[in-house]
């Protein structure tokens, strides 16, 4: 005599499918997926959630079909990723420290079209040509780094104001220097690398590592690993509130 009139295997599969769909949909709607991947992945999360919901719906009628032999191992393919997404853990943002190809120079190499004049691209805000001043908004951090790198001669001598976290890796930054950095993400946290403008500042040693600051300084033409590099001669540093430190090359 059977002890139950349902399939424990199919029931478990349904729970995993609906659970996985809920997690993916929650990550997409809440924006929490941005801790792992770039905004371009959001449509794939929504499609993935829809597929899992459909799989769960089509599996419901099969729950009533009793099975003598139950196989659960394949359910781990959904359970393990769900647990990895739900359980608290440190993100790569806390460990990414080394720029992949330099500081501001990394942007120029990843965006070959950056040398185009600003007027030929999407208009960036914060440019005051009359007073030779650039105020970099958080959402335009990458775009302005790209613009300054590609048109360094044009903007040399401008006053630049920008916000970032203090980056002072001795492998890339010398004494009396720091970078108000942000983390560049192309696809996911696995490719995170800091970018920003190298700043010349006599009191750089007094700035705590990873503290958030707003920097004001004059743009100068420096050199980083043999390539022309936009740098700042700092005139003012103030404390700032942390912001989303991920920036994207698009």
Automatic annotation (TrEMBL):
<dbReference type="InterPro" id="IPR048447">
    <property type="entry name" value="DUF1980_C"/>
</dbReference>
<dbReference type="Pfam" id="PF21537">
    <property type="entry name" value="DUF1980_C"/>
</dbReference>
<dbReference type="InterPro" id="IPR015402">
    <property type="entry name" value="DUF1980"/>
</dbReference>
<feature type="transmembrane region" description="Helical">
    <location>
        <begin position="41"/>
        <end position="63"/>
    </location>
</feature>
<keyword id="KW-0812">Transmembrane</keyword>
<protein>
    <submittedName>
        <fullName>TIGR03943 family protein</fullName>
    </submittedName>
</protein>
<keyword id="KW-0472">Membrane</keyword>
<feature type="domain" description="DUF1980">
    <location>
        <begin position="120"/>
        <end position="249"/>
    </location>
</feature>
<feature type="transmembrane region" description="Helical">
    <location>
        <begin position="6"/>
        <end position="29"/>
    </location>
</feature>
<keyword id="KW-1133">Transmembrane helix</keyword>
<feature type="transmembrane region" description="Helical">
    <location>
        <begin position="69"/>
        <end position="87"/>
    </location>
</feature>
<dbReference type="InterPro" id="IPR052955">
    <property type="entry name" value="UPF0703_membrane_permease"/>
</dbReference>
